[in-house]
Amino acid sequence: MSIGALDDGLARLAHEDGVLVRVEATEGSAPREAGTWMLVWARALTATIGGGQLEYQAIEEARALLKAPAGEPLRKRYPLGPSLGQCCGGVVHLSMRRVGAADAADLRRQLTEHMAPVAIFGGGHVGLALARLLATLPYAVRWIDSRDGVFPDALPAQVQTEHSEPVQDAVATLPPGTHVLIMSFSHAEDLDIVIACLRRLRERDDLPYVGLIGSKTKWATFRHRLEARGFGEAEMARITCPIGVPGVTGKEPEVIAVAVAAQLLQRRTAAG
């Protein structure tokens, strides 16, 4: 689920009612996980619960709910077997309820509460590519720079920009569980942000991922400077540098962004 899709849906609610279809639970193999949603309109869809016959039947039932005078919420169990024309073999439990303009604020809260927070330090080309890509994924993005006027005007609502001077001060205000990506315009700023992250890890241990853009040579230089400031091997091992999944060698901002996003998704999956 992306905030872009959610924003589109909430904007549409101002003009017409829809039906929120949500995966409440699954058993065995299923197309999507619990929490997945879509909004069904009389002649359109926002987002998806996985496609196929499951989605087709859910859309038909949601549109029937839209036409019903009472529009009572529904809960239904869908076995994904031969009768549904899907061979997943599992079971999906769906809920459906009619929603309108008055539900917009509550929907935003409900549908974004499980999004993982990410902080991008650095308003350059790679930061922009990452912010735009992560806006299509289940992340809430905080994009931070020490310079005024570096952020573009048009950004997805999922991306919140912030000016912080000195930039490392923003580390203390990050929500627990934030994944941190460091790629500022200068190595000096990068080092200050890394130090702030290591101090926070020492005090609270609540940043699951801290990634620093750069080469092995850059990291070797940083290690010497961090050692001089009293950080040990175990602490420095908490920093990922270089960032991105191995094997992706392109240096274009968009290529780096894909590799880094894939690494974040891998970490999220491994964490359960």
List keywords for this structure.
alpha/beta, 272 residues, 22% strand
Report strand %: 15-25%
Could you name the ranges where pLDDT drops below 50 across 5 or more consecutive residues? Answer: none
Please compute the radius of gyration using only Cα atoms.
22 Å
Shape: elongated
Side by side, the strands of the main sheet go 8-7-6-9-10-11
Quote the distance from N terminus to C terminus: 18 Å
**Biggest sheet features:** 6 strands, parallel
Q: Work out the helix count.
A: 8
Domains, number: 2
Q: What is the CATH homology-level superfamily of the largest domain?
A: NAD(P)-binding Rossmann-like Domain
Order of helices and strands: HEEEHEEHEHEEEHEHHEH
The CATH topology assignment of the largest domain is: Rossmann fold
Annotated CATH architecture of the largest domain: 3-Layer(aba) Sandwich
Please bin the fraction of helical residues.
25-40%
Please state the average pLDDT score. Answer: 90
Q: At the first level of CATH, what is the class of the largest domain? A: Alpha Beta
Quickly give the structural class.
alpha/beta
Number of strands: 11
How does this model look, in words?
With 272 residues, the chain is an alpha/beta fold. It has 2 domains: 3-111, no CATH class; 115-270, 3-Layer(aba) Sandwich (Rossmann fold), CATH 3.40.50. It has 8 helices and 11 strands. The protein has helices at 3-13, 52-67, 104-112, 125-134, 187-203, 216-228, 233-236, 253-270; strands spanning 18-27, 37-40, 45-47, 74-79, 91-99, 116-121, 139-145, 159-163, 179-182, 209-212, 239-240. Strands 8-7-6-9-10-11 form a 6-stranded parallel β-sheet, sandwiched between helices. Strands 3-2-1-5-4 form a 5-stranded antiparallel β-sheet. Helix 1 packs antiparallel against helix 3 (104-112) and helix 4 (125-134) packs across helix 8. The radius of gyration is 22 Å and the shape is elongated.
